[in-house]
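Throughout our pipeline, every protein is held as a single compact record rather than as scattered files. The record that follows is passed on verbatim for readers who wish to inspect the format:
___
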Amino acid sequence: MHLSNLVYKASQNQNPKAVWKAIGGSISESVTRRRLAGIKKSLSDKRVYMVEHHLAHAASAYYPSGFSKALIITLDGAGDGLSGSVSIGNKGSIERLAAFKAS
């Protein structure tokens, strides 16, 4: 959704939770994509990937932990429409078992 449409939608809705939901993820994603584009230019010979929000949390906990097998739980306010996930880290890979939608 374009930013001007988000602003219009937000101004028509008096429910703060709905306004936050309408503008929060889209603006964050737009900013992230612009930043990523700038990073890609400076790393032209490297590969840069977008990673799902809770997978990034899980990976940053699991990979440096030193465990070959681990239960991984992520919880936060709302990342990519989710507020949490449960995954298993096993022999260097991560498998999501459950995800909890942001409420």
Remarks:
- Strands lie at 69-79, 82-90, 93-101.
- The CA atoms of residues 83 and 102 lie 5 Å apart.
- The chain is about 45% helix and 30% strand.
- The first helix runs from residue 3 to 12.
